[in-house]
């Protein structure tokens, strides 16, 4: 097995983008127009190459991963572990400061690593449309990739925090430089919102360090490691509740959970297509991942205290997000992208509801929903990107009858739409059912209310489908998209776009029919996770 | 009291300061003798600083009350003296490349000499353990800095800056000396060690002690530009030459924090054994609280006002007020952890703040403006410089993986460890506010005027190398900071003489 070989695969998969960045920065810009064009092509394909290598590494990890080993809080059952001493300094008052380069994965992180690798790879292709400052774009893109991968591998809180914050700046630039008309506003809003979340995380991290004398996440999960007189020592203390809330809000902003979601629609609407894809596909998952990895198991007592509140917030996000998405048909600019952004809020609420249920099936469903939502929303944003690139508008009312003009496109789109609605046979269905199964046992009323979102989801999605793809093509789109045939030779999706979309569509259908390859990864870890949480939380039906 | 052996030992420990005095004189003489070279005094100054640094290094491990307890030589002072020394060195190098200074003057002899004079004053201040000595040291550094602030005397706002600096300086010195006289009246001594012994043995009325303490604090607060003694800062920082602004924002603050910490630890510490966790201070005054409130006011005002600034120097002036606030948070916990956090923060602050000011100076050389709008498209006009500036700004904000983050981490860590959770929350919220104005500069550099068609700005390789020499450590110490932490921990014990 690779994990036992001395090949630091997690380091490789995380830091491969650095190599890409170096190559990209060294590519000369080119003197004349031809040279510049060549340099851009090289840069793009370097990015493709690097992300493809990451994908291969992710698949190797997937194939060598042993689902029988649980992980979560047990170092011995973590896999591909890399543990090196990184910073050691003697502090007379607080003992030694000891930060480790500590990476390892379990059943909760493997699906996320797989997702990150897939999304980062496919999102490179829509990035080919980026025209200005190509070098900077791909450098930032790969840096973002690095940060995301690192977050899912890190098991040392300090390291985790480093990767977490590392993503902020590239994301700021990617939205701010290459975004839409209100990019500056959206970029700084994103930056400030996430920073507010992470500074609270920083304080809790410091407090945890002073309580346990270590940044090791696994040691923080063991109540025996907390010194009795320390700030987070004891159980069910007010300060522990406050600290949990600090962490929770930090992660909830990223999810984003109602009422911390307001940055998301702005960021999505202004971000360029590939960045929307990454934002929805991976970045939002980090919030929920952080809860499972850090907030819940370190403060299980506080989670038990707030469990119902969290379930409520999940429910409100689900319903509120769905209503907002529906509202995009009637109010505002009727922006297709905004509709999907709000549907993300709704779907991520489902993840939180599933987690709050603390039932094994609900939690497995939540993590699976994270994976599926990543894939499905990535597809949806790319689909919006395809027509936006051609028509330069995303207005829901500006289109009609595209099914005739773009048959293949409509086919792919239908897969994504129906998966988003949760049609049986698509991956989204499985995860929604699992979440509802779990949450119904713990929170029946909330689950029934949340079930409303399925109807709302069908309404806003089908309405969009009808408006854009059926009916009559408006006058101005009657002719070909590109009469000169320079950029778009045919009216339908081009090869590059298909490379990005088709694999995702296959994943959606395959997992809808046979979800076990992903479900099997995490059941062991989730069961162990529930066992850790069980003494502190309410689990319906158990 | 003062025997010969004390004098001999004191003089041997006074070598760094002596070197500075000799350098001061040599620089002046060489400047007059050699007319051709414009920067001769600067070269002499650099040589002198390097030698002084060598002597300073020799003092490692020394703990001594020199000159009958007028000055203290200890590792805490050594650390901050190194900070001052390094900033002086860096500032002199910056000055070689300052068009602003070179256009206004044919020769810069006095300029470099005055910097050495100011360094000397700061060295004294760092070591002072006697109230009169503190006063004299503050005046020594102040007089040089008043002149330096108005050094480009043809520039109207520089003269204005200088005058304001003098007036505010005079007022706060006046208040301070009044406070000193009250403390003298209360305790019958000017020596911090004797004051400490007196306070430990006798009961002193609280109100006069509080008043005198606050008055003395106003003198220190003026040097570190803490609210409400900060009013001079924006105008002086904006008006003075960039090099001097940078110098004031780092070295002068280092000296101010040194004397602030030493005053509390030496003068007011209750040295009963078993109180090593937090310093127990004499008298019934909660100094933690006083400093904490000042810290909150300082950082909040600094950050909020900085939001509206459009002049880079003014913006960085308010940002430096905010940083003084963060540092005061660490002072307010009043224990050795806090001292170590101050030292760690200062080292990183020196790198990033000097770096940011140098970029401002270079851009002003080319564009003749410090307006934030002039930075539009800089990321495309001068990529390396803009990347370095981004590193400095991110570091000033305190985001990983930069050294500024490590500084903040230690400051917040010391605050949380002492249980001041509310203070830590105010502190982190302040960093969020600061993000907005630092990122405003980054926004202008990269988000505005994308792929600028304006001419590229070409800087000489040596200036770029200097910027990189500050930017690269700013990044590297963000991921590997063991040496600085070890050094600061070694230096955090202020010698209290028992």
What would the keywords be for this entry?
heterodimer; A: 542 residues; mainly alpha; 20 helices; B: 498 residues; two-stranded antiparallel sheet; 75% helix; 1% strand
Gist?
The complex is a heterodimer of chains A (542) and B (498). By secondary structure, chain A is mainly alpha-helical. Chain A is built from 20 helices and 2 strands.
Shape of chain A: globular
User: What amount of the residues of chain A lies in strands?
Assistant: under 5%
- Element-by-element helix/strand order of chain A: HHEEHHHHHHHHHHHHHHHHHH
What is the residue-averaged pLDDT of chain B?
88
Q: How would you spell out the order of helices and strands of chain B?
A: HHHEEHHHHHHHHHHHHHHHHHH
Strand order within the widest beta sheet of chain A = 1-2
List the topology elements:
The complex is a heterodimer of chains A (542) and B (498).
Chain A lengths: L8 H18 L6 H32 L14 E13 L3 E11 L3 H14 L11 H20 L3 H10 L1 H11 L4 H30 L4 H4 L17 H17 L8 H8 L2 H26 L1 H28 L8 H22 L2 H32 L10 H4 L1 H15 L5 H16 L1 H26 L25 H19 L2 H18 L9
Antiparallel strand pairs in A: 1-2
Helix pairs in contact in A: 1-2, 1-4, 2-3, 2-4, 3-4, 3-11, 3-14, 4-5, 4-6, 4-11, 5-7, 6-7, 7-9, 7-10, 9-11, 9-12, 10-13, 11-13, 11-14, 12-13, 12-18, 13-14, 13-17, 13-18, 14-16, 14-17, 14-19, 14-20, 16-18, 16-19, 17-18, 17-19
Chain B lengths: L3 H10 L1 H19 L6 H19 L5 E3 L4 E3 L1 H22 L2 H6 L4 H19 L3 H19 L6 H32 L4 H10 L4 H18 L8 H8 L2 H27 L18 H20 L5 H21 L3 H32 L10 H4 L1 H15 L5 H15 L3 H27 L13 H19 L2 H10 L7
Antiparallel strand pairs in B: 1-2
């Amino acid at each position: 097995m690779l994990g036992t070989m001395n090949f630091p695969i997690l380091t490789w998969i995380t830091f491969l983008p650095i190599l890409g960045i170096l190559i990209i920065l060294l590519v000369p810009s080119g003197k004349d127009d031809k040279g510049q064009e060549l340099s851009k092509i090289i840069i793009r394909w370097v990015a493709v190459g690097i992300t493809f290598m990451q994908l291969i590494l992710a698949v190797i990890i997937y194939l060598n991963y042993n689902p029988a080993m649980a992980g979560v809080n047990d170092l011995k059952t973590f896999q591909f572990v890399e543990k090196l001493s990184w910073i050691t300094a003697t502090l007379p008052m607080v003992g030694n400061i000891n930060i480790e380069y500590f990476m390892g994965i379990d059943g909760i992180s493997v699906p996320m690593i797989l997702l990150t690798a897939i999304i980062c790879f496919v999102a490179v292709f829509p990035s080919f449309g980026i025209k200005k400052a190509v070098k900077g774009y791909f450098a930032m893109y790969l840096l973002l990739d690095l940060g995301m991968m690192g977050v899912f591998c890190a098991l040392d809180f300090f390291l985790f925090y480093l990767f977490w914050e590392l993503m902020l700046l590239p994301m700021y630039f990617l939205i701010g430089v290459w975004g839409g008309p209100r990019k500056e506003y959206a970029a700084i809003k994103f930056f400030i919102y996430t920073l507010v979340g992470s500074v609270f995380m920083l304080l809790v991290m410091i407090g945890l360090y002073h309580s346990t004398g270590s940044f090791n996440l696994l040691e923080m999960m063991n109540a025996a490691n907390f010194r009795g007189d320390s700030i987070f020592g004891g159980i069910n203390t007010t300060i522990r509740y406050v600290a949990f809330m600090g962490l929770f809000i930090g992660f909830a902003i990223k999810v984003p959970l109602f009422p911390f979601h307001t940055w998301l629609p702005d960021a999505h609407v202004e971000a360029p297509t590939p960045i929307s894809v990454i934002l929805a596909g991976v970045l939002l998952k980090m919030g929920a991942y952080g809860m499972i990895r850090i907030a819940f198991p370190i403060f299980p007592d506080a989670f038990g205290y707030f469990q119902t509140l969290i379930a409520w917030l999940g429910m409100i996000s689900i319903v509120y997000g769905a209503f907002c998405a529906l509202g995009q048909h009637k109010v505002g600019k009727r922006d297709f992208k905004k509709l999907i952004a709000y549907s993300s809020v709704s779907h991520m609420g489902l993840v939180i509801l599933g987690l709050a249920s603390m039932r094994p099936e609900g939690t497995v469903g939540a993590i699976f929903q994270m994976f599926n939502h990543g894939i499905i929303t990535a597809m949806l944003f790319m689909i919006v990107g395809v027509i936006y690139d051609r028509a330069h508008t995303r207005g829901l009312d500006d289109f009609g009858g595209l099914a005739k003009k773009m048959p293949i496109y409509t086919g792919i789109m239908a897969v994504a739409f129906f998966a988003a609605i949760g049609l049986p046979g698509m991956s989204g269905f499985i995860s929604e059912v699992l979440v509802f199964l779990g949450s119904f046992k713990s929170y029946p009323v909330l689950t029934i209310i949340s079930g409303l979102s399925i109807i709302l989801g069908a309404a806003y999605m089908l309405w969009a489908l009808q408006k854009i793809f059926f009916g009559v093509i408006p006058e101005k789109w009657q002719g070909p998209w590109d009469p000169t045939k320079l950029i778009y030779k045919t009216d339908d999706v081009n090869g590059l776009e298909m490379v990005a979309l088709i694999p995702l569509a296959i994943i959606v259908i395959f997992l809808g029919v046979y979800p076990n390859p992903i479900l099997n990864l995490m059941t062991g870890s989730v069961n162990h996770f529930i066992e850790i949480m069980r003494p502190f939380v309410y689990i319906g039906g158990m | 009291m003062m025997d010969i052996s004390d004098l001999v030992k004191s003089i041997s420990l006074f070598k760094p300061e002596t070197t500075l005095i000799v350098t001061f004189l040599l620089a002046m003489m060489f400047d007059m003798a050699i007319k051709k070279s414009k920067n001769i005094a600067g070269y002499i100054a650099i040589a002198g600083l390097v030698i002084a640094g060598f002597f300073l290094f020799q003092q490692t491990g020394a703990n001594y009350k020199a000159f009958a307890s007028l000055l203290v030589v200890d590792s805490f002072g050594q650390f901050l003296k190194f900070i001052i020394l390094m900033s002086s060195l860096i500032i002199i190098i910056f000055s070689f490349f300052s068009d602003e200074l070179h256009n206004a003057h044919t020769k810069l002899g006095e300029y470099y000499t005055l910097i050495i004079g100011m360094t000397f004053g700061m060295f004294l201040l760092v070591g002072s353990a006697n109230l009169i000595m503190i006063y004299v040291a503050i005046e020594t550094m102040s007089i040089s800095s008043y002149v330096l602030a108005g050094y480009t005397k043809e520039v109207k706002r520089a003269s204005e800056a200088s005058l304001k600096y003098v007036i505010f300086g005079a007022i706060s010195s006046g208040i301070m000396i009044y406070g000193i006289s009250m403390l003298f009246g209360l305790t019958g001594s000017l020596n911090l060690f004797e004051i400490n012994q007196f306070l430990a043995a006798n009961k002193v009325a609280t109100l006069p002690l509080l008043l005198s303490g606050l008055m003395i604090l106003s003198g220190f607060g003026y040097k570190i530009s803490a609210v409400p003694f900060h009013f001079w800062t924006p105008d002086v920082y904006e008006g003075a030459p960039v090099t001097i602004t940078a110098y004031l924002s780092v070295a002068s603050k280092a000296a101010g924090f040194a004397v602030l910490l030493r005053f509390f630890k030496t003068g007011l510490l209750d040295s009963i054994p078993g109180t090593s966790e937090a310093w127990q201070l004499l008298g019934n005054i909660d100094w933690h609280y006083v400093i904490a409130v000042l810290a909150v006011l300082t950082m909040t005002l600094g950050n909020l006002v900085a939001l509206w600034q459009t002049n880079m120097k003014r913006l960085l002036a308010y940002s430096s007020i905010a940083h003084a606030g963060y540092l005061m948070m660490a002072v307010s916990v009043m224990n050795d952890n806090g001292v170590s956090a101050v030292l760690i923060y200062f080292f990183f602050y020196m790198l990033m703040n000097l770096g940011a000011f140098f970029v401002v100076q270079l851009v002003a050389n080319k564009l003749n403006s410090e307006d934030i709008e002039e930075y539009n498209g800089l990321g495309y006009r001068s990529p390396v410089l803009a990347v370095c500036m981004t590193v400095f700004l991110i570091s000033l904000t305190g985001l990983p993986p930069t050294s500024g983050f490590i500084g903040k981490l230690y400051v917040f860590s010391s605050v949380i460890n002492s249980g001041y959770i509310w203070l830590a929350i105010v502190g982190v919220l302040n960093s969020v506010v600061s993000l907005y104005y630092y990122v405003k500069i980054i926004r202008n550099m990269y988000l505005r005027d994308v792929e600028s068609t304006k001419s590229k700005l070409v800087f000489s390789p040596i200036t770029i190398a200097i910027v990189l020499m500050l930017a690269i450590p700013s990044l590297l110490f963000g991921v590997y900071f063991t040496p600085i932490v070890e050094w600061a921990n070694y230096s955090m014990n202020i010698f209290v003489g028992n």
